[in-house]
Amino acid sequence: MQEQITAMELQNLREAIAAHTLSAKKLQEYSTQANDQQIKQMLSQSAQSAKSTKQRLMQFLQ
User: Fold this and answer.
1) pLDDT digits 0-9 by tens, 34-50
2) Alpha-carbon distance 10 to 22, whole Å?
3) pLDDT tens-digit map of 2-18
4) Distance CA 1, CA 18 (A)
5) Is residue 43 a contact partner of residue 31, using CB atoms and an 8 Å limit?
6) b or e along 27-51 (b: 16 or more beta carbons within 10 Å of the residue's beta carbon)?
7) What is the dihedral of CA 9, 3, 59, 7, to 10 degrees?
8) How many CB atoms lie within 10 A of CB 10?
9) Quick check: helix, strand or coil at residue 57?
10) What are the angstrom distances between the C-alpha of 51 and each of 18, 30, 44, 54, 62?
């Protein structure tokens, strides 16, 4: 049985998805600009984490 989400929950979900999308893009861009390999790797991993979280959040829309 699938539960329905409220309009407020839907709006919050959309905002969270948008925030993670933006974070992933920014972190990936910062990663490409970084010179230090450790920082580059950390930023890239953080971008991937944001993308993964976005995908998990999007599952609630199905």
Assistant:
1) 999 999 999 999 999 99
2) 18
3) 578 899 999 999 999 99
4) 27
5) yes
6) bbebbeeeeeeeeeeebbebbeebb
7) -20
8) 13
9) helix
10) 11, 15, 11, 5, 17
Q: Distance of CA 34 to CAs 1, 28, 29, 47, 56, Å?
A: 47, 10, 9, 14, 28
* Separation of CA 38 from chain center: 21
**Helix boundaries (H) for 1-62:** 7-33, 37-58
The residue assigned the tokens 């974070």 is 23
CB 34 within 8 A of CB 40: yes
Tokens for 48, please give them.
């991937």
Q: Which two tokens stand for residue 16?
A: 């969270």
